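User: I'm curious whether this sequence folds into something compact or stays loose and floppy. Could you predict its structure so I can see for myself?
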Amino acid sequence: MPFLLPCKQQELPARVNFSTAPAPAPAVPTALHSKMDELEGQLLAKVLALEKERVALSHSSQRQRQEVEKELDALQDRVAGLEHGSSAYSPPDAFKISIPIRNNYMYARVRKALPELYAFTVCMWLRSRSDGSGQGTPFSYSVPGQANEIVLLEAGQDPMELLINDKVAQLPLSLKDTGWHHICVAWTTRDGLWSAYQDGELQGSGENLAAWHPIKPHGILILGQEQDTLGGRFDATQAFVGDIAQFNLWDHALTPAQVLGIANCTGPLLGNVLPWEDKLVEAFGGAKKATFDVCKGRAKA
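Assistant: Here's the prediction. I'll summarize afterward.
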């Protein structure tokens, strides 16, 4: 019996050491919790992002509904006008640009870049106040490297001309009196086909005018002056004198019926590339912008 007591005293420290050995084990659940917290944060961020996207889509849908409602209101106003027996229409932006004297500083600039065009129709109302020395330049379109990308010009006693990429076609148009005239010129790069209308009637057509040449984009469109450089260097002898209204540009050739409808003020049609809008036309150098409905005012002096 005396020998058992020392053995128990030796075993006690061994049990204490064995029981304290697994102490690092709690570190495992701590790391797991940290990872779970991180994943939870990521999921929460994703939920918040999706919620923001849902709200943005809701606002976008609301704006689209408002735009549709605005268009419907405009159409209803048009229908109401027709129901009241109105045979003509009022352009949405009824104004004119007036250039009273021949000079090299009065003009209007269109504040919209054009895309590349493989065809176009340009229509406008013109009232010339020329002194007989030619109508000048109702409009010119220049691009970098080519001042005469599109130009409508009547210089001196020469016929009116359409220039495309410096190629020229003479047009059978006449604006010798002081009344309003509706002018349309259509062109397509395919075979260089062109057509010229005055007051709704086809006056002439031709081909091989800058055939297969696409109209270059991002140029400068000027009303009333001919550009010798991009956006400038005007020549007073080539300036237009008079009034310009309802200048519209399409990326295709209008049909004769469409042209006639515009000229007769029975077919409302705005350019799909360039519509005649007040915010897109800026007058310079003393050229005047004035409220004017050409369909109501063309019969006046």
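Summary: The longest strand covers residues 119-128. DSSP finds four helices and 14 strands in the chain.
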